[in-house]
Amino acid sequence: xxTPESYEFLGWPMAGDxxxxxxxxxxxxxxxHTINTPKAFIVGCDMPLxxxxxxxxxxxxSGDWDVVLPWLEAGPEPLYGVxxxxxxxxxxxxxxxxxxxxxxxxxxxxxxxxxxxxxxxLIGDISTFHNINFNxxxxxxxxxTEKAPNG
Length: 151
Fold this sequence. Notes:
Helices cover 36% and strands 15% of the residues.
């Protein structure tokens, strides 16, 4: 976050963008630059339906990859993936060239694609990828949580 004062009540470590105003790619860079582990799960702040079973699965996948991410029928979900720190130089190169689209970056990296069928078999559906950007999205979220056993 670039506004840590808004979130200090959480008591969590925070990092601001090193390359400001570069969108999500700048945030991914800041996170990977800050962590002390070889990889990190990265998720968009507008995705409230996180699924811990899926996250654990994505984090457990081994191999010589730079990014493991869900690859749905509609396309990749780059803001619900596990990024290896070794892709930092590729991210920095993209940011320096003002190429902020994550899709362009993904073309340069070794990917482990987790299919929609694989995800559905694991967790039943793909509602975890629903993001909240508009009022209609909030209504959808309310309906989903009403159906949930503890909703």
